């Protein structure tokens, strides 16, 4: 045991004895009664455990307590701060004892060796290290300091425990620092301080005791409180509201973006033909991701007058050939519009697009299907067969004209 730990334990014994009175257990209790009382005393004050135990003794026997509901037993042990865990351990122990021995008599353990008695106790369901240590101290006459969860929290706050030692449930150095004759007194006073620390850790009396034992413990508690308040404050603060953007600043950004886009449009292409190349790229980009209907709708027919053809020219225009459909790119690209307007050697006046007129469908002559000629046996093709109606129809006789009456 380190010197620092031994000094802290010595100060703990001195301060606890000065602030809390020593409590000795009632004489004449059986092993079973001490076991059940220890279940109620763990993490509770002596006065509260005494009152709860007295209420449970009013039942006819411990078997009736075993078959009673937890809710009724918790009402009987209402003096405890948290009666449910204690009642659950107590009933579990009574069930385990009845299933093992078919009775509630444990006085035979006093005759056994202490090691064998402890091993037998640890086999019962619902028993805790605190209950075993309490029986060793008050029923078997051994030297063992009962350590509850509240006592472990107090020792941790005072710097007497490492995380591994806290998991084991035992504070090392208690039995060596305290003699056997002073064991019950030390346990009763430290247990009262530990329960108060658990139930009201920021009480003035409790903080004064901690400061006298180890001032570093109070500093750690204050630091933990400050961190908890800071975390709670940060969680309750509303989220930061974004500042409104200045209208002029936003407009400036938008105009800058527009200038960049116009400069990008004015840049010449690598092919050297800005008009046709830009028109093709613009049409392909505008038609990407659109349906066929949308692509066809983008191309608007423009009616232009064709020059009159000479009479002797072999190429005759088909009906409706005086109108030609010229696909014009969208008006968004200036270079394509100028390239479409300028044709030939010199610039020509632009032709205004006429309103779209519905085109009349041109009826195309339907070619008559000729019946195939059947080959003759000799191999020569026969003339197309006349219809059966013509062959079979009798020759019509010329009817004489009727004479008009005179």
Describe this structure in words.
The protein is mainly alpha-helical and 406 residues long. The protein has a domain at 3-201: Hypothetical protein, domain 2 (Endonuclease III, domain 1, Orthogonal Bundle). Helix content is 52%, strand content 0%. It has helices at residues 3-19, 31-41, 46-56, 62-67, 70-76, 83-101, 114-121, 129-138, 149-158, 163-168, 174-177, 183-199, 204-213, 215-236, 247-266, 274-287, 292-298, 334-341, 388-392. Helix 5 crosses helix 6 (83-101). Mean pLDDT is 73; it is low at 257-262, 264-347, 376-382 and 386-393.
Précis, in short:
By secondary structure, the protein is mainly α. It has helices spanning 3-19, 31-41, 46-56, 62-67, 70-76, 83-101, 114-121, 129-138, 149-158, 163-168, 174-177, 183-199, 204-213, 215-236, 247-266, 274-287, 292-298, 334-341, 388-392.
Keywords:
406 residues; mainly alpha; 19 helices; Endonuclease III, domain 1; single chain
CATH topology of the domain at 3-201: Endonuclease III, domain 1
* Whole-number mean pLDDT: 73
- What is the CA-based Rg, rounded? 55 Å
Instruction: Characterize the largest beta sheet: strand count, sense, and whether it forms a barrel.
Output: none
Low-confidence stretches: 257-262, 264-347, 376-382, 386-393
CATH uppermost class of the domain at 3-201: Mainly Alpha
Structural class label: mainly alpha
Determine the strand fraction and express it as a percent band: under 5%
Helix share, percent: 40-55%
**Termini, distance in Å?**
165 Å
Task: Name the helix and strand elements from N-terminus to C-terminus, one letter apiece.
Answer: HHHHHHHHHHHHHHHHHHH
**In the CATH hierarchy, what is the architecture of the domain at 3-201 at level 2?**
Orthogonal Bundle
